[in-house]
Write a structure and sequence with these properties.
Elements: E1 5-8, E2 11-14, H1 18-31, E3 38-42, H2 46-54, H3 56-64, E4 67-68, H4 73-81, E5 85-86, E6 91-92, H5 101-114, E7 118-123, H6 128-139, E8 144-148, E9 153-156, E10 159-162, E11 166-168, H7 184-195, E12 198-204, H8 209-222, E13 233-237, H9 241-245, H10 254-258, H11 262-269, H12 274-291
Parallel strand pairs: 3-4, 3-13, 7-8, 7-12, 12-13
Antiparallel strand pairs: 1-2, 5-6, 9-10, 10-11
């Protein structure tokens, strides 16, 4: 059964329950046998939805993902506000709940541990990925995997730049692969996935960098140059999750999470993020204007 989805300001969001999504992934994990099969997971929040209104390529990437988790209290509010009615009773559909990226990542790691599948934590700074993996192994001793800090990425004019040296341009239908654009880092990442038999990749670079990287990685693995080298790969964008798992940033108390104020807790802990919260106000205005 396909997952339920709902469009919000032009971005498709997965609205199935957490249990349904996990079950769907586990099933896909078991039956994908065709070459170069990749399952993409993104975690849109209001800030990303606002960015998608300005960056067409970013919107395309979000909409091409297999799963777009509703990660953010504002996003869930908007989805429930726009819930479709179900005929003939004309009642609102099932209540949509927030699915946090960090909780979903932890659950995927449990799946990986149970299935003896290797994971890769890629991104972050100062060894956060390695510390996050060590933390996950305390919870799931059977978890096998690797961790690596990511290089410095930039997005400029819808082009993906790596360490101000390598550049990946928006690919064309006739391009052979992203390799033709000199992406040594993408090549390194693909070779690491291949040589270490990685099955799940968590990319923590922040949006939209991580989504652009997932798009580049997907095209490279599925492209003619590397045709058929890999299958059954799950790739998930996780933002700043590594810092939380590594203990660098304290997560909000459970009660704060339940009431949807985790963003406010994060702002209290990192006041420099106040500019980013302006996107939440912009998001609310966009939703209210659309309803008029």
């Amino acid at each position: 059964m396909p997952l339920s989805k709902q469009s919000l300001l032009g971005v498709s969001i997965t609205t199935s329950s957490r249990e349904e999504i996990l079950s769907w992934i586990v099933k896909k994990f078991s039956i994908l046998h065709s070459p170069f099969s990749i399952l993409q997971i993104v975690t849109p929040n209001p800030e990303q939805i606002v960015l998608a209104q300005q960056d067409e390529k970013f919107r395309e990437i979000l909409n091409s993902a297999d799963i777009a988790l509703p990660d953010g209290a504002g996003l869930v509010w908007a989805l429930n506000k726009a819930r479709p009615c179900v005929a003939p009773a004309a009642k609102a559909g099932p209540w949509i709940e927030r699915i946090s990226g960090i909780d979903f990542m932890i659950e995927l790691c449990k799946v990986a541990a149970d299935k003896n599948s290797r994971v890769l934590l890629y991104g972050g700074r100062g060894g956060a990925a390695g510390k996050a993996l060590a933390s996950l192994r305390k919870q799931y001793p059977d978890l096998k995997g690797f961790a690596e800090d990511g290089p410095s990425f930039q997005i400029s004019n819808f082009k993906f730049q790596i360490s101000n040296k390598y550049q990946i341009q928006k690919y064309k239908k006739d391009s052979t692969s992203y390799f033709s654009n000199g992406s040594a880092e993408i090549k390194h990442l693909v070779q690491m996935i291949r040589s270490r038999n990685i099955r799940i990749v968590f990319i923590g670079l922040g949006a939209p960098k991580q989504e652009y990287l997932i798009d580049a990685l997907t095209y490279t693995v599925q492209g003619p140059t590397l045709h058929g080298i890999y299958s059954n790969l799950v790739v998930m964008a996780v933002g700043g999750v590594f810092d939380v798992l590594a203990g660098k940033i304290a997560r909000a108390p459970k009660l704060v999470q339940q009431f949807g104020f985790e963003w406010l807790w994060r702002l209290f802990k990192e006041p420099w993020r106040w500019r980013r919260q302006l996107s939440l106000l912009q998001f609310i205005l966009l939703i209210l204007r659309k309803k008029k």
